[in-house]
From TrEMBL:
Zn(2+) binds at residues 77, 80, 122, 173. This is Galactose-1-phosphate uridylyltransferase. Residues 197-305 form the Galactose-1-phosphate uridyl transferase C-terminal domain. It comes from Kribbella kalugense. It catalyses: alpha-D-galactose 1-phosphate + UDP-alpha-D-glucose = alpha-D-glucose 1-phosphate + UDP-alpha-D-galactose. Residues 111-185 form the Galactose-1-phosphate uridyl transferase N-terminal domain. The lineage of its organism: Bacteria, Bacillati, Actinomycetota, Actinomycetes, Propionibacteriales.
């Protein structure tokens, strides 16, 4: 294992055999994990992959997920640290960051799905994390990326966070997930197709050129620092959409330098606070890491994070209706330049 410097990793197992990993700052006391006393039966996920002959897309059927935990009361949250009378997925009484195999996985056999708990504080959010805690999450993502990307049955490592009931969140505790796909998802296949065409015509990396153009043009840049730029893409699909790019081409989070990780944590927290300041309340969002594929077209990739919200006004949601759902053709109610200007003003 190549755990990031400054981080202590502690591996253990839950009562049903699933892996649980604690990530703590290296200067904290050595953790001696408590035993999971729940006596859970071994997981028996029902997963089937089918390929759509019309599109080539792989569709996953995971029928056991229909019975997963849904919006439990705070005192029964399965992602909080365990307390007397409420044993949870995390047996210890406190933790910094914890990662465990999903009890209701979307993939079984090939691939893997994990839950990443950003903090033991149920009432916290990523937006309100300290920069040090956010940085610990970045190191956690990096470690998981390296380990999952080394598996023979994984084609893409996809860390992401869903926030807000409007997005479809079923657990309100601050957490994200990691999907280690056993196939290349449609979005990434499309991106790599475009990147390959651009490389053949321009002789350069598509994502690097997009970043350079946005930084030069400037009107859609929301914020930046020494190693990262956050901008609203020229052809944004979502009402509020911001992409965060490192200034250096890397393929995965695990390849980021210490300084790049520091600067990402700083800029990401800045952008998240701008999101929440947009309408004066927590904004529902999806944060989606785009890492390079593990094998196929890896050289064409460029690590970046895409942050998006479906809220098109304070009291209005953007639904994927006929054109978007039926034809995949987005029609937006917001103009990228206006969104960027508004977000810049939120932070001023």
């Amino acid at each position: 294992m190549n755990t990031p410097r400054g981080v202590r990793r502690t591996d253990t197992k839950l009562s049903d055999g699933r892996e649980l990993i604690y990530y703590d700052p290296a200067d904290t006391p050595v953790r001696v994990p408590l035993e999971d006393t729940r006596g859970l039966p071994a997981p028996q996920p029902q997963v089937e992959l089918r390929t759509d002959p019309l599109t080539g897309d792989v569709i996953t059927y995971a029928t056991h997920r229909n019975t997963r935990t849904y919006l439990p009361p705070a005192d029964q949250c399965p992602l909080c640290a365990s307390k007397p009378g409420n044993p949870t997925e995390i047996p210890d009484h406190d933790y910094n960051v914890a990662v465990f195999e999903n009890r209701f996985p979307s993939f079984a056999g090939p691939g893997r799905t994990e839950v990443v708990c950003f903090t033991s504080d149920h009432n916290q959010s990523f937006t309100k994390l300290s920069q040090g805690q956010a940085r610990l999450v970045v190191d956690t993502w990096a470690d998981r990326t390296a380990e999952l990307g080394a598996r023979d049955d994984v084609e893409l490592v996809f860390p992401f966070e869903n926030r807000g009931r409007e997005i479809g969140v079923t657990l309100s505790h601050p957490h994200g997930q990691i999907y280690a796909y056993p196939f290349l998802p449609p979005r990434m296949r499309n991106l790599m197709t475009q990147a390959r065409k651009h490389q053949e015509v321009a002789g350069s990396n598509l994502f690097a050129d997009v970043l350079a153009a946005e930084r030069k043009e400037g009107t859609r840049v929301v914020a930046e620092n020494g190693n990262w730029t956050a901008f609203v893409p020229e052809a944004a699909r979502w009402p509020v959409e911001v992409h965060l790019y490192p200034h250096r081409q890397v393929f995965g989070i695990d390849e980021l330098s210490v300084g790049e990780r520091d600067d990402f944590a700083e800029l990401y927290l800045d952008v998240l606070n701008r999101f929440d300041g947009l309408y004066g309340e927590p904004l529902p969002y999806i944060a989606a890491w785009h890492q390079a594929p593990v094998r196929i077209d890896r050289e064409l990739g460029y690590l970046h994070l895409e942050l998006l919200s479906i809220r098109r006004a304070k009291d209005k949601i953007k639904y994927l209706a006929g054109s978007e759902s039926g034809m995949g053709a987005f029609i937006s109610d917001t103009r990228p330049e206006d969104v960027a200007e508004t977000l810049r003003k939120v932070g001023s």
